[in-house]
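job 3f2a | input accepted
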Amino acid sequence: MSKISQAAEFLINNRRLDQVADTLPPELQPTNWEEAYATQQVLVDQLVAEHGGQLVGYKIAATNPVAQEMLGVDGPLFGRLLSAFVHAAPVELPANDFQTRVLEPEYAFQMKEDVPTDGQDFTAESIASYVAGVLPSIEIVNHHFTNLKQAGGMVLVCDNAVHGAWLHGEAHKSWADLDMINTEIQLLANGQLDSTGNGTNVLEHPLNALAWLANELPKFGLQLSAGDYVTTGLTTEVYAATAGDQVTADFGSLGSVDLKFS
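job 3f2a | predicted structure (262 res):
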């Protein structure tokens, strides 16, 4: 078994057994981003084999200074969205399905056509023409490490950027006039306002994050495709949920996402 396969198996076993580790063993540590994303691919293929469904898009992590500090990285990372862990809101989920329940209100996009991989340098303006709709969403970060900073950014990439689940509202097709900069997003927990934020927390605009991803994926043999969902990163403070919590992410005119942990 290759080093990459062994690393993926180590991380899968942590998920299966719901156990935590400091990081990957020294002999399984990735030495570069290519190894890290190759390990991620093996891991997500195994998750699809075990849980069914298919890959349906991407998550972008660490687009927000709060998230970068939490993960101990200085720039964005990406992971994959799996249909087995994607839910249309409102939804109730068992708290025990997650080792951690770190909730992140995020702007998300759905792509209307394949994005070229011919070396274009996409910007917020140029990537916008490939967007079919914008969705309100919550990502659940679920990790199996004692400390995210100690684990290290490359190891977090190996573990699918510590993605747990993704919940989304309705896709809005007429989104050109949506103000993702000034619209206040509210994170409410059990009826009480927990934190607020807006799209400037996501690389100054969520479309900047989408452009980053469109430019980054071809480096690893990947591509944004028609129908893909992309969730772009934390807009508010994170919320660490526990069993019984009722949480709402309110995106104003874009709608709300409601989640309860049983």
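job 3f2a | The domain at 3-261 is CATH 3.90.850.10 (Fumarylacetoacetate hydrolase; domain 2).
job 3f2a | closed
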